Amino acid sequence: xxxxxxxxxxxxxxxxxxxxxxxxxxxxxxxxxxxxxxxxxxxxxxxxxxxxxxxxxxxxxxxxxxxxxxxxxxxxxxxxxxxxxxxxxxxxxxxxxxxxxxxxxxxxxxxxxxxxxxxxxxxxxxxxxxxxxxxxxxxxxxxxxxxxxxxxxxxxxxxxxxxxxxxxxxxxxxxxxxxxxxxxxxxxxxxxxxxxxxxxxxxxxxxxxxxxxxxxxxxxxxxxxxxxxxxxxxxxxxxxxxxxxxxxxxxxxxxxxxxxxxxxxxxxxxxxxxxxxxxxxxxxxxxxxxxxxxxxxxxxxxxxxxxxxxxxxxxxxxxxxxxxxxxxxxxxxxxxxxxxxxxxxxxxxxxxxxxxxxxxxxxxxxxxxxxxxxxxxxxxxxxxxxxxxxxxxxxxxxxxxxxxxxxxxxxxxxxxxxxxxxxxxxxxxxxxxxxxxxxxxxxxxxxxxxxxxxxxxxxxxxxxxxxxxxxxxxxxxxxxxxxxxxxxxxxxxxxxxxxxxxxxxxxxxxxxxxxxxxxxxxxxxxxxxxxxxxxxxxxxxxxxxxxxxxxxxxxxxxxxxxxxxxxxxxxxxxxxxxxxxxxxxxxxxxxxxxxxxxxxxxxxxxxxxxxxxxxxxxxxxxxxxxxxxxxxxxxxxxxxxxxxxxxxxxxxxxxxxxxxxxxxxxxxxxxxxxxxxxxxxxxxxxxxxxxxxxxxxxxxxxxxxxxxxxxxxxxxxxxxxxxxxxxxxxxxxxxxxxxxxxxxxxxxxxxxxxxxxxxxxxxxxxxxxxxxxxxxxxxxxxxxxxxxxxxxxxxxxxxxxxxxxxxxxxxxxxxxxxxxxxxx
Length: 824
Prior knowledge:
Layout: H1 3-8, H2 12-33, H3 40-48, H4 53-160, H5 164-178, H6 186-250, H7 264-281, H8 287-290, H9 294-305, H10 309-328, H11 338-361, H12 368-390, H13 396-415, H14 421-452, E1 458-460, H15 463-472, H16 478-482, E2 487-489, H17 494-513, H18 520-548, H19 554-569, H20 571-582, H21 596-624, H22 641-658, H23 665-694, H24 704-722, H25 739-750, H26 753-759, H27 772-789, H28 797-823
Antiparallel strand pairs: 1-2
C-alpha cells in the first residue's frame, strides 16, 4: 500500500498526530518567516524532537515553499496587466525624464557656476569665524597673562630701583595669585623658577647695602657723636646760664672769678647768648638727618619677609660688636692733645646714638639688654683707656679739658638712657691726678717766685702803691699805716705773689669740681683738701728747698722767717675765700681746716735751723784757718788773727739781725729771738770747736806757751760775749757758753790741781765744769811735751818736782776717770 493510501486509511489517532505536526511546523515556519531573532531556539526545536524530525521538517519546508510559489504565481497573474501598463507608462516617462535630466544638469551647472563666489565667501567667512574665535580665545588668555607680565615688569622695576621689600611683596602676589592662573604656559614656569633666584639676589643686594650702611655709619660716627655732644653741651650751657641768672637775681653768685662778681651787663650778654643758643637749637640735627637708615630697615624687612630674620639680627649684632671694638681702640698718641680725646669720644657717642636709634626705630633688631651689655663692655674699656692715657698727661689744662669732655660725654649718653655713674667715679680718680699736675705746675710757679724775690721789705712810695699791695695781700698794721711815705712793709715781694697763686690754685681746682653733680659741701671739702696738699706738700717743699740753697744767706733766711709768719696769718683769709666760693659755712661739722699754720711753722723752724747751721759752718771755716804753734814757749801777747776775724764777722752779722725792720712788736720779738738763739748757738759752737781743737787726737803735744796763747783767744771770745752783741740777754748768760773752756784753761794756767782734786764733786767747786777725762787728756799732752823738751830737766830739782807732780796728778785723774766709768 502506498503512502497516500496509508495516510488516507490511517486511523483517527494518526490524523490527530499529523494535525499536531502541521500545527507545530506551521508555528516554526511562522517564526522563521518572521525576521525577529533569535532563530537558534526555533531551529533547535526542529532537531530536538522525534527521530527523523529533520527529514520531516525538510518535507514540510518544501511543501511550504511550493505553497508560497503557487501564491506568488497567482498574485503575479493577478497583477500582470497592471505591471505591463506601468512599464508602458515608464517608457513614456523615460523620454521626459531624459529631457528633465538635461534641464537639471544645465540648471545644476549654472547653479554651480553661480555658487562658486558664494562658496568662496562662505569659506572665507568660516575662516574668519575661526580666526575670530581664535582671537577671542587668545584675548581671553592674554587677559589672564598680561597681569602676570605686568607684575613681573613691576618686579623688575622695583629691583632696578632697589625697592626690595616691595619687590618681595610683588613676588608673593605672583606666586600666590597670578602665576597659578596661567601655570600651564611655559613662560610662567620659567618665571616661577626665576623667583627663588631673585629672592636670593635680593638678599645678597640688601646685605650688600647693609654692609655699605655699616661702613657709612662707621665713617660718620665721628660726625654723629660731635653733633650729639655739641647739643648736650648747648643744653648744659643753657641750664648753667639759667642757674647763674637765678643766682644773680636772688642771691650771691656761687663764686667770683678774681674777686669780681658778674656785672649786670654780663647778665644781659648772657641772656643774648641764651637767645642765640635757642635760635641755634631750632635747627637740631639728629642721627637720621646725618645718616640714611633705610638700608638697615629695608634689609630687616626683607629678611623678615623671607623668614630669615634671626640670621640678619645675628649678623648685624656681630658686625656692630666688631665696630664697637674698633671704636673703643684709641690711638697711641691720644693723650697728647685734646683733639685726640674729642675724636675718641665723638666716635663712641656716634656709635651708641646709632644703636639707640636702631633700638627705638625697629622691633627687636637690637634689644635694651643687648645695648646695655654692649655699653657695659664699652664702659669698662673706656674707663681702662682713660685711666691709662690720662696718667700720661702732665699738663693740668689738658686734664681739665679732658674732664670737661668726659662730663659732656657722660651727659650726652645719659640723655640716651645709658648709665654713666662709673664715669663720674673715674672723674674723681682723674681729679686726684689733676691735683697732682696742678701741684707740679704750682711748684714751678713757687720756685720762680722765690728765685725772683730780692728778700727785702717791700718799699711803697705813695698811697696808690700801698693800696695796690694790700689789695693783693691781706695786710693790716696800724703803726705802719700811721707812718709817712715812703715806707717799707715787713714782708718781701714773694708774699703777695704766693698768696695770689694760692688763690689761683683754688680757682683752678674749682674748675675741675664744676659739673660733677656734687653738693657744695663736697666741693668745699675737695677744695680744702687740695689746698692743704698745696700748702703742706708743694709750698712746704719749695720753702724747704729754698732754705737749703747755698746762695741764701742769713739775711735772706731772716726775711723768709718774716715772710712765713705773714703767710701763716693769711691762712684764715684763704679759708674765708673758700667759704665765699662754696657758700659752705666754716662751722659745718665736716668742714676740713687748712693746715697752712703747721706748714709755715715748719718752714720757719727750718729757716731758723738753717741760720744756726750756716753760722756754725762759717765758724768752722774760720776755725780751719787757725794755725797754732802748739810747742811755743811763750804766747805772742795778742789774740790770734783768725779769731779776731771771726769775732768781727759775728759782730757784723748780729748787727744785721738787730737792724732788721721792727715796725711792730711781733717782728721785733721774732727777729730778737732769732738773733739771741743764733748768737747763743754760735758762742756754744765756738766754745765746743775750741775745746775739740785742744783735745784733738792728732794733737800729741801742747806747751804752756800754747795754752797761754789759747787763753788769750778765749778771753777775746768772752769779751765778745760780754759786749752784748745781741740785746736781750740777761746778765752773763751769753758768757756761760765759754764757762767750760774757761774753767779748764784757768786750771792749767793757775796750776791749781790741789784745789781741783780736793773740791772735785762738790757743788761749790771752783772747777765744777772741768771733766776729769778732759783734764787728763790735756795734761798728758803737756806731760809728753815736758819729757821731750827737757831732756836734762832731771838734773834740776824744780823740774823733777814738777814732773813728779804731773805724774801724781795724772794718776789721780786716772783714778777719778776709772771711778766714774765703774760707777756708770
